[in-house]
Fold this sequence. Notes:
By secondary structure, the chain is of the alpha+beta class.
Amino acid sequence: MTFARFAILWAVFTAVEVLLVGTVDVQETPVGIVVAAFAAWGTLAALHASGERYRFRVAWLGVLPRLAVDVVRDTFLVFGVLLRRLVGGPLPHDAILEIPFAGGGDDPESNAHRALGIAAVSFAPNSIVLDVDADRTLLRVHYLLSGVEKPASAEWPV
C-alpha cells in the first residue's frame, strides 16, 4: 500500500509541476520528476512521523467545480476592491462571520474532511478561516467583502 501511495503522490506532484511550468521540456521535466519523487517521499515520511492519518473520499471531489467558480468570482471582486482603493475609494465592508461546519470527530475521515473544508473556504481570495469552534460546530471566517453569498451547507462550507 505504501508504494501505491508513493506512486499516486509522485504522479500528482509531477502533473502539478508540468501544469505550473506549462510545457514538457527535455531539460526541465526530468528535474521536475525527480523533485516530485522527493516531494512524495517527504509527504509520506511526514505523515508517518506525525501519526496523523487522513482518509479521503472520491465523492468529495464534487466540491471542486463550486470552488473553481468561487475562486474566479472572488478574484474579480478582490481585484475590484484593490482598484477602487488605489484611486482613493472607500474601504471594503468586511466581516467576521460564524458559519456552520460539521467537522466530525477524530477519525481519519473526519480529519481529512475538516482539512479539506477549511482549505476550500480559505482558498478563494475573499475568505479565510480564522478559527474552528468544534464545540459549536462553527467556522469563524473573515470575508473581505461581506456581501458575498454565504455557504448553506454545514457539510461543505464552500
